[in-house]
Amino acid sequence: MFRRASFSFAVGRVVERTREINGRGGEPRAGSVGFVGLGNMGSVLAGNLVGAGHAVVTHDALGPGRSPEGALHVSGVAEVARRVGVLVLSLPDGTASEQVAREVLAVPGGRVRYVVDTSTVGPAAARSVAGLLAGSGIGYVDAPVSGGVAGARARTLTVMYAGDGEACSAVEGVLAGLSDRRRRVGERPGMAQALKLANNFLSATTLAATSEAVAFGLAAGLDMATMLDVLNESSGRSAATGDKFPAHVLTGRYAAGFANSLMDKDVRLYLRAVGELGGPAGIGAATGAVWERFARAEPGADFTRIFPFVDGSMGGSMGGS
Ligand code: NAD
């Protein structure tokens, strides 16, 4: 059984401010926003901020290639930190978030007052980076996202966020620039990470389980499109059968924009966090083993390629397609 955290917390919706400060269109109204990490997710989120009327200053270790039109790309985190009051991160993991936080802290006369971390880093890293920044009076809002690159483009991405009331309210306009779907889920950094890890454990499990079920159906002579149609009208439906399989597996596109290594990282973070709270992890362990094998066998592959990986390992008819 889980050892429950002894604190209580209020889960509540933050009443959204009107968009008078950060509304879409027109002149930049909200002061400059920094954005570090312009990968599959960050490049779209930074573009959303530009589209929402923010003046955006970007940086990525790989250079300006994916900086959105209308943003100013600069050559280092220090230069971003000298220009902006709010800094948004979209980085691979907690090690990268901590590294960037340390670079922010090292800038003499830096202007950053709040960091909004949209990366999936796990509760422990979120608490640690928040503590590091708090020492210099910088607020941290833990704000992981769910809904994929397509959801980010459509502004339907869920931004789940946690932090103290003052910091959350100070960055509300920036959160509104990222997506139209936002929920404050707790008062302390790390709480949104816990929810994000629970979500990705479910997402990883249903995608792996759906891969096994579809591979089984194909081996039994069924057609994948027929299977998905019927599953989506039946009790086996999920985001895997309703979205990922039709859009990326059935079409052979395999281009959801989320690397298997990141999903492997997320399930590992989930299992570590469950372990810290002494909770059950039977299904989690099985899910973790599949994603670990897949990430090791095909490093960097799109996560929807788990289907051919699973199908192939069952000796299936569509392996590697
Ligand atoms: P990605 O690997 O495509 O991009 C990460 C970017 O960060 C890269 O461009 C890299 O060059 C940059 N970077 C790394 N370390 C840096 C540093 N120290 N300084 C500056 N730049 C640095 O990853 P992604 O798919 O965009 O995901 C980003 C985060 O969002 C991850 O934590 C991921 O788990 C999470 N996430 C992604 C998705 C998705 O669909 N892609 C969905 C939900 C959450």
Structure summarized in a few sentences:
It is built from 13 helices and 9 strands.
Task: Find the structural class using helix and strand composition.
Answer: alpha/beta
| Chain oligomer state | single chain
CATH superfamily of the largest domain: NAD(P)-binding Rossmann-like Domain
What is the domain tally? 2
Percentage of β-strand residues:
5-15%
Ions and ligands: nicotinamide-adenine-dinucleotide
Q: How many strands, which pairing sense, and closed or not: the largest β-sheet? A: 6 strands, parallel
Any idea of the CATH class of the largest domain? Alpha Beta
Average pLDDT level: 91
- Rg over CA atoms: 20 Å
Q: Strands of the biggest beta sheet: in what spatial order?
A: 3-2-1-4-5-6
Write the layout of secondary structure elements.
Elements: E1 32-36, H1 42-51, E2 55-59, E3 72-73, H2 77-81, E4 86-89, H3 94-105, E5 114-117, H4 123-134, E6 139-142, E7 145-146, H5 148-154, E8 158-162, H6 165-170, H7 172-178, E9 181-186, H8 191-219, H9 224-231, H10 239-249, H11 260-276, H12 282-297, H13 306-313
Parallel strand pairs: 1-2, 1-4, 2-3, 4-5, 5-6, 8-9
Antiparallel strand pairs: 7-8
Helix pairs in contact: 3-4, 8-10, 8-11, 8-12, 8-13, 11-12
